[in-house]
Amino acid sequence: MPAILEIDGLTKSFGALVAVNQVSFAVEKGEILGIAGPNGSGKSTLFNLISRIPFGSDSGRVVFEGRRIERASDNQIARSGVIRTFQREAVFASLSCIDNILVAVEQTLGVRGKEAERLADEASDLVGFPKNFHNMPAVTMPVFYQKQLMLATAVAQKPKLLLLDEPASSLVENEVEWVRDTIIKLNQTGITILLIEHVLPLLMAVSRRLLVMEQGSVIALGNPAEVTREKQVIEAYLGQPV
Ligand SMILES: Nc1ncnc2c1ncn2[C@@H]1O[C@H](COP(=O)(O)OP(=O)(O)OP(=O)(O)O)[C@@H](O)[C@H]1O
């Protein structure tokens, strides 16, 4: 499989702290690549650097579909097909649910009116967000539905590569099953997925390969079952074999 995303020597420091340190790896088109690692190991910062939301890298290259994007604007990156979600539910609280989706679609794709509504409906159906909630203020939605809305908003922007940052955090078991099933469904529509997750059974169930970070560096990358048996991964993250 050809690489859809190639990252080379990506680095970001906050003062003396090197949050992402010379990270290099490639993502194959069509795969789900899981990303694990202890708190503070640089996973979310890596997503920031790829999407440039809210900031880019100090140095290193990000190549998406053969084009350098590490100095492109966040909007250009989104328009090229790289869309991220956030660990915390990130919705515009004062807007209705449908307007959350429509604002993002207009911002990223420059599409309004009936075509934007069609994309919103299609994305809502795909992730299972109930369309009868569309006109409710996003702020009134329980956490699970805010997460669904955040995902529907991402999907409506027609991602080729979706960066999912802990989609299962603060969810209960049957909701985590929705996350798993939806990730698989989205991947089957052709979307390549990078998935940061602490819920290990979920990560293991959906990832074709697993990348593990520790203190800003990649310490393992490969077959999930093999990676989780590596001594350094057990010591840095798992505590004990899974
Ligand atoms: N904007 C920032 N300013 C200063 N330090 C930051 C900033 N963002 C992240 N950091 C630091 O960079 C390091 C990596 O943080 P990051 O959020 O990427 O880790 P993470 O692996 O996603 O952690 P978690 O699993 O807890 O979400 C941490 O030490 C964090 O405190």
The CATH class assignment of the largest domain is Alpha Beta
| Count of β-strands | 10
Question: Per CATH, which architecture of the largest domain?
Answer: 3-Layer(aba) Sandwich
- Which fold name corresponds to the CATH topology of the largest domain? Rossmann fold
Structural class: alpha/beta
Overall average residue pLDDT: 95
Physical arrangement of strands within the biggest beta sheet: 6-7-8-3-9-10
Helix count from the secondary structure assignment: 9
What is the percent of helical residues?
Answer: 25-40%
Distance between the termini: 29 Å
What is the H/E string? EEEHEEHEHHHEHEHEEHH
Sheet with the most strands, sense and barrel status:
6 strands, mixed
Cα radius of gyration in angstroms: 17 Å
Low-confidence runs (pLDDT<50, min 5 residues)? Answer: none
Question: What general outline do the C-alpha atoms trace?
Answer: globular
CATH homologous superfamily heading of the largest domain: P-loop containing nucleotide triphosphate hydrolases
The total tally of domains equals: 2
List cofactors, ions and other ligands: adenosine-5'-triphosphate
Strand percentage lies at 25-35%
Quaternary organisation: single chain
